[in-house]
Amino acid sequence: MAEVPTAAIAATGLLGGYAVARWTKKRPLGGVALAAAGAVAARGWQQKAGNATAAALSGAYVAAFAGSHPLAKKIGAWPSVFAVAGGVAVASWVAVDRRK
């Protein structure tokens, strides 16, 4: 079975977390989706590229989540989430997935 790239997992976590929170109107449920995907991505980062890379990308994931909120006030909610998810996906691909 093909392995899912960590870039896709991280981007899906940010997009899915927001989508779940928005459509269920339960922000904690969106947080669970965000955290679950982040944990899966972090495990993949650690296994493929080591602790330092995993820590850096985990920090970027959390910063993207936090940064999407003020960015949403400027460009809108969905564009903000797509922008930060894309940024984390690119960082993950550059640091981990392209090594394959």
Report on the structure:
This protein is mainly α. It has four helices and no strands. The chain has helices at residues 6-24, 27-49, 51-75, 77-95.
Compact description:
Helix content is 86%, strand content 0%. With 100 residues, it is an all-alpha fold. The two termini are 16 Å apart.
Secondary-structure class = mainly alpha
Measure the end-to-end span. Answer: 16 Å
Q: What is the number of strand segments?
A: 0
Largest sheet: none
Strand content: under 5%
What is the count of DSSP helices, taking H or I runs of 4+ residues?
4
Please state the CA-atom Rg, rounded to the nearest Å.
13 Å
Note the run of SSEs as H and E: HHHH
* Low-pLDDT segments, ≥5 res: none
Mean pLDDT: 96
Shape: globular
Helix content class: over 70%
SSE arrangement:
Layout: H1 6-24, H2 27-49, H3 51-75, H4 77-95
Helix pairs in contact: 1-2, 1-4, 2-3, 3-4
Which key features would you list for this structure?
100 residues; 86% helix; mainly alpha; single chain; 4 helices
